[in-house]
């Protein structure tokens, strides 16, 4: 990467989470599926980063990898995940377990459906706290839980309810409450609202925002809804075939997308203002099993040229704060 | 040829020339057609229960088949050899009190017992499948009746019913009649479990698509649902056979089986009748127990293996 | 003229039998007539619990109504003869939401295309059938050699859904009921599939009922829209009007809640319910279903369910804010719909 070493060190120091060249491969009998193939990004405290991509782009895998929840046949092949100077990938399992929830927490996709149906909300939160060695008296625990519920906009009576008595939005907010119970520095939300109605979606996202502001935590929002990203994040990373195509401030990407995939993606978004033609992106994402050489987007790219066939583009900062992996912006190459 | 407008392309796709399909040679999913044989072998390596179980059952069958050529099965009748001989070169399994060559008994008896199990198991699952499909798919009064019968039938102690049946047919029950007696109850449990499967399958979207494509009820049952149930039915069959063998051995051990046949259960009966345990004639009861053990464990392993295929959630593979 | 497919004062209630404690009214007194000439596109928009999926199943005859009737060419779906039913299936087809669940995992994807060909006699020989299938696949932008002979799990969600569109095209029905056809498909492919659906309407004259919770795609594809809330019609009419200037408080909430892909455009939250609304929330009542959340709720909203008021030529809303406007019955929503215009389609020269 074309960055100075000192810039890099400054960047890592001011970031609460720094991911460097993360690679996660799934080993199948027919070979390795390169789900995440070299992803690098930072996130500062209080910042909201979105990772948007379609199915198979690797975004959920990144979320799981950051939590070190990748199970065989998946394996983290390489890279670093630095939090407070510690590389999470090099920790022993027990040390990582202590950090999960306390330092980095996740609201998983479909988390609301993973709440234990036979345990009251109160106990689900209490279990999480006890697991991390929080020793409180019954009364203190009760008030801590009521406090948490209030932070996510739920009344204290919810603590005594069972998951099936709650609506989808309420369940998701309970999951957020569990995620923030140990006041983590980073919260990862993987498609937190995809199963929810649009009105409830807004409530849940608002809750997430409030919670984040209070904690001063960083939030990584993983999803596929560009509209949601536009409204809910500060910086956006566009994932394609396991790598970042573009990474920059969210306004910039909507005003002037640089990567051809981002351009086509944004052009395909239907608007609520006026009717237009339907513009999709022809073709399919590449097979991650036998990933071809060169740029993964080349077969579908309207602006591809010969360099794109052989050389894989790297994520480069072509303007301050604007990272793209596309040969069109090569300084030394010759764009078409 | 009719002019078919190009949907999803052509004039509606901005910036695209009206060519039929974009040229995308490599941008498709893994284009390799499934390599069936290789996949099967790889699968068997990952799911060892299945081949182990099959191996065990095969070994029993081979034992019987090859044995029947090498050993004179007439020696399984009483008064063929010297009585109560411990195992020796001439009598590898020894002999029993009535002078039966126990090796011949095992060779002749194993296929008989297996036959009872298979016939009863097949009838049980066959009848069970038909009842289950018809009752679950069409519902209504028929379903209520079948469900009622099954629920009541399963609460009645099976062995008791079988004993009463066996006693009634007492005069010279044959091996095949044994199978039918056991089959009388063997269909109850398969009906219940298969009905549950069909009920859940009936609500699947692809069944509704089939209905909307004009398929009739029987067609949907036979062509859409049944193929998906094959692994499940196979597992149910193995379990049914297992249960049938157990029931038949139980009846025979009580003396209610075909007296003249050298089935495994009858051997157990004779062992008890002659107090072989107390008399220290260990070779007499060891033989049937070992064979029964291999049979049951083999059936169980096969059933485990089939369960893994039938229930995708148990699969350990990606 | 008898509508081809008609829902007449249809109501559907779940539960409430001898053993169920809870009665859920999924759909209440809903009427809709769908003509096949001229072909139209109607969007039915609602969130979960609105009754839209129930409506789809009722129109397809997969489930029977508790009250009212669903009529095909004037005959109740439940009393169709064998031939009539075959005709019904030729005329009314479906595209389901889940592109995986629609395939029988035992068969290749070909099965879902070959079955209708065989059952409806769409081809005289196997060769002709194969040719027709390949032609239809190409028409939706798929390559037959990359699609046929594969199991469902070997194809992507977008491909599988396009095959279902191809299946519909193969049968050439008069009406397609599309239940959330693109909600489980990736964004970049959604536009392609929606384009296919629009072309089915324009080039082949197939009427489309597009059922969804996604207001944006509903707006893009349809001429008219019906907004459902808890089983009743909240607002109905010209989609440009309903979306551009929503009159019913629920529609306003829905439109405002859509996150726009423009960071500079605000994302509106739910306005606080009025005093009357809080009263409505506290005690169960027989009035407007939305009263408990409505910022404009009034006392009358708690007393009786509002009728549909016609607000202009192509718009009606069921809200007491418009008390005084001419009322229309639930079975007259067809009156406020914009008649479809068929644009001339330029077919590419092949």
Descriptors:
heterotrimer; A: 336 residues; alpha/beta; eight-stranded mixed sheet; 32% helix; B: 318 residues; mainly alpha
SSE layout:
The complex is a heterotrimer of chains A (336), B (318) and C (350).
Chain A: H1 5-14, E1 17-28, E2 31-43, E3 48-52, H2 59-66, E4 74-83, E5 86-87, H3 93-99, E6 104-107, H4 121-131, H5 138-151, H6 168-180, E7 186-190, H7 198-215, E8 218-223, H8 226-232, E9 235-240, E10 243-249, H9 250-255, H10 260-267, H11 307-310, E11 316-319, E12 322-324
Parallel strand pairs in A: 3-8, 3-9, 6-7, 7-8
Antiparallel strand pairs in A: 1-2, 1-4, 4-5, 9-10, 10-12, 11-12
Helix pairs in contact in A: 6-7
Chain B: H1 36-46, H2 49-70, H3 102-138, H4 140-155, H5 158-168, H6 175-186, H7 188-202, H8 205-212, H9 217-253, H10 264-273, H11 276-279, H12 282-310
Helix pairs in contact in B: 2-3, 2-12, 3-4, 3-6, 3-7, 3-9, 3-12, 4-7, 5-6, 6-9, 7-9, 8-9, 9-10, 9-12, 10-12
Chain C: E1 5-15, E2 23-34, E3 41-45, H1 52-60, E4 67-72, E5 75-76, H2 82-91, E6 92-95, H3 110-119, H4 126-139, H5 144-147, H6 157-171, E7 175-179, H7 187-204, E8 207-212, H8 215-221, E9 224-229, E10 232-238, H9 239-244, H10 249-257, H11 275-282, H12 299-303, E11 308-312, E12 315-317, E13 327-328
Report on the structure:
The complex is a heterotrimer of chains A (336), B (318) and C (350). By secondary structure, chain A is of the alpha/beta class. In chain A, 32% of the residues lie in helices and 23% in strands. In chain A, the strands form 2 sheets. Chain A has an 8-stranded mixed β-sheet, sandwiched between helices. In chain A, strands 2-1-4-5 form a 4-stranded antiparallel β-sheet. Chain B has 318 residues and is mainly alpha-helical. Chain B is built from 12 helices and no strands. The radius of gyration of chain B is 27 Å and the shape is globular. Chain C is α/β, with parallel strands linked by helices. Chain C has a domain at 5-234: P-loop containing nucleotide triphosphate hydrolases (Rossmann fold). Chain C has 12 helices and 13 strands. In chain C, the strands form 2 sheets. In chain C, strands 6-7-8-3-9-10-12-11-13 form a 9-stranded mixed β-sheet, with helices on both faces. A 4-stranded antiparallel β-sheet of chain C has the order 2-1-4-5, covered by helices on one side. In chain C, β1 and β2 (23-34) form a beta hairpin. At the B-C interface, α8 and α9 of B face α3, α4, α6 and α7 of C.
């Amino acid at each position: 990467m074309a960055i100075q070493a000192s810039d890099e060190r400054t960047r890592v120091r001011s970031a609460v989470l720094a991911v460097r060249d993360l690679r996660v491969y799934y080993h199948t009998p027919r070979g390795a599926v390169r789900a995440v193939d070299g992803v690098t990004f930072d996130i500062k405290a209080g910042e909201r980063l979105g990772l948007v991509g379609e199915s198979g782009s690797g975004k959920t895998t990144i979320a799981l990898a950051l939590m070190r929840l990748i199970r065989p046949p998946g394996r983290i092949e390489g890279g670093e995940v630095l939090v407070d100077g510690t590389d999470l990938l090099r920790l022993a399992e027990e040390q990582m377990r202590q950090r999960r929830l306390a330092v980095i927490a996740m609201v998983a996709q479909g988390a609301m459906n993973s709440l234990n149906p036979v345990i009251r909300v109160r106990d689900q939160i209490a279990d999480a706290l006890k697991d991390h060695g929080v020793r409180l008296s019954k009364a203190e625990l009760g008030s801590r839980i009521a406090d948490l519920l209030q932070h996510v906009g739920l009344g204290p009576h919810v603590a005594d309810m069972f998951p099936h008595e709650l609506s989808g939005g309420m369940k998701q907010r309970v999951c957020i409450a569990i995620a923030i119970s140990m006041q983590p520095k980073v919260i990862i939300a993987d498609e937190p609202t995809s199963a929810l109605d649009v009105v409830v979606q807004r409530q849940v996202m608002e809750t997430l925002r409030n919670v984040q502001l209070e904690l001063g935590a960083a939030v990584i929002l993983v999803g596929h809804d560009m509209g949601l990203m536009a409204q809910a994040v500060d910086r956006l990373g566009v994932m394609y075939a396991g790598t970042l195509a573009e990474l920059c401030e969210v306004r910039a990407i909507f005003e002037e997308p640089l990567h051809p995939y981002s351009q086509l993606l944004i052009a395909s978004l239907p608007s609520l203002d006026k009717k237009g033609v339907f513009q999709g992106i022809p073709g399919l994402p590449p097979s991650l099993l036998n990933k071809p050489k060169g740029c993964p987007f080349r077969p579908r790219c309207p602006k591809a040229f010969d360099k794109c066939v052989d050389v894989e583009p790297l994520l480069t900062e072509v303007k301050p704060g604007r990272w793209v992996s596309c040969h069109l912006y090569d300084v030394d190459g010759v764009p078409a | 040829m009719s002019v078919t407008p190009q949907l999803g392309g052509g004039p509606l796709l901005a910036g695209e020339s009206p060519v039929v399909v974009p040229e995308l040679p490599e941008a498709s999913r893994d284009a390799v057609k499934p390599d069936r044989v290789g996949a099967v072998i790889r699968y068997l390596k990952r799911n060892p229960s299945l081949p182990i179980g099959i191996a065990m059952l095969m070994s029993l069958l081979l034992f019987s088949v090859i044995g029947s050529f090498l050993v004179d099965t007439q020696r399984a009748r009483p008064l063929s050899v010297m009585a109560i001989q411990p195992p020796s070169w001439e009598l590898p399994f020894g002999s029993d009190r009535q002078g039966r060559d126990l090796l011949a008994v095992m060779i002749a008896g194993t296929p008989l017992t297996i036959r009872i199990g298979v016939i009863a198991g097949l009838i049980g699952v066959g009848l069970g499948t038909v009842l289950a499909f018809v009752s679950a798919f069409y519902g209504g009064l028929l379903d209520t009746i079948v469900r009622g019968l099954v629920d009541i039938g399963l609460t009645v102690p099976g062995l008791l019913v079988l004993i009463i049946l066996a006693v009634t047919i007492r005069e010279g029950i044959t091996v095949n009649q044994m199978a039918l007696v056991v089959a009388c109850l063997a269909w109850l449990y398969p009906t219940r479990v298969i009905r549950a499967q069909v009920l859940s399958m009936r609500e699947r979207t692809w069944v509704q698509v089939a209905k909307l494509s004009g398929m009739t009820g029987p067609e949907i049952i036979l062509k859409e649902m049944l193929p998906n149930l094959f692994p499940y039915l196979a597992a149910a069959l193995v379990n049914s056979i297992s249960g049938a063998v157990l029931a038949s051995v139980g009846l025979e051990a009580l003396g209610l089986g075909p007296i003249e046949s050298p089935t495994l259960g009858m051997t157990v009966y004779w062992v008890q009748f002659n107090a072989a345990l107390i008399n220290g004639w260990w070779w007499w009861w060891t033989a049937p127990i070992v064979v029964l053990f291999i049979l049951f464990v083999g059936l169980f392993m096969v059933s485990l293996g089939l369960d893994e295929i039938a229930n995708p959630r148990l699969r350990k593979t990606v | 003229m008898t509508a081809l497919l008609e829902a007449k004062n249809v109501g559907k209630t779940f539960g409430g039998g001898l053993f169920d404690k809870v009665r859920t009214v999924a759909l209440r007194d809903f009427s809709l007539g769908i003509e096949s000439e001229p072909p139209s596109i109607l969007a039915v928009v609602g969130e979960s619990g609105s009754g839209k999926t129930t409506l789809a199943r009722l129109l397809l005859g997969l489930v029977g109504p508790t009250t009212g009737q669903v009529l095909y060419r004037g005959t109740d779906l439940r009393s169709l003869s064998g031939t009539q039913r075959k005709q019904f299936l030729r005329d009314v087809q479906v595209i389901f939401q889940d592109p995986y669940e629609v395939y029988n995992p035992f068969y290749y994807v070909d099965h879902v295309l070959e079955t209708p060909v065989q059952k409806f006699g769409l081809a005289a020989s196997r060769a002709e059938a194969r040719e027709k299938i390949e032609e239809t696949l190409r028409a939706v932008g798929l390559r037959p050699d990359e699609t046929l002979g594969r199991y469902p799990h070997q194809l992507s969600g977008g491909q599988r859904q396009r095959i279902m569109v191809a299946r519909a095209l193969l049968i050439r029905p008069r009406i397609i009921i599309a239940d959330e056809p693109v909600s489980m498909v990736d964004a970049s492919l959604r536009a392609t599939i929606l384009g296919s659906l629009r072309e089915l309407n324009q080039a082949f004259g197939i009427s489309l009922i597009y059922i969804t919770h996604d207001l944006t795609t509903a707006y893009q594809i349809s001429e008219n829209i019906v907004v459902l809330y808890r089983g009743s019609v909240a607002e109905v009419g010209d989609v440009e009007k309903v979306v551009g200037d929503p009159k019913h408080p629920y529609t306003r909430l829905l439109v405002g809640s859509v996150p726009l892909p423009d960071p500079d455009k605000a994302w509106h939250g739910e306005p606080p319910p009025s005093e009357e609304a809080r009263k409505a929330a506290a005690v169960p009542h027989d009035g407007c279903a939305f009263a408990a959340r409505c910022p404009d709720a009034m006392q009358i909203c708690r007393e009786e369910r509002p009728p549909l008021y016609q607000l202009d030529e192509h718009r009606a809303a069921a809200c007491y804010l418009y008390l005084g406007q001419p009322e229309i019955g639930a079975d007259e929503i067809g009156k406020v719909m914009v008649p479809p215009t068929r644009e001339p389609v330029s077919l590419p020269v092949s």
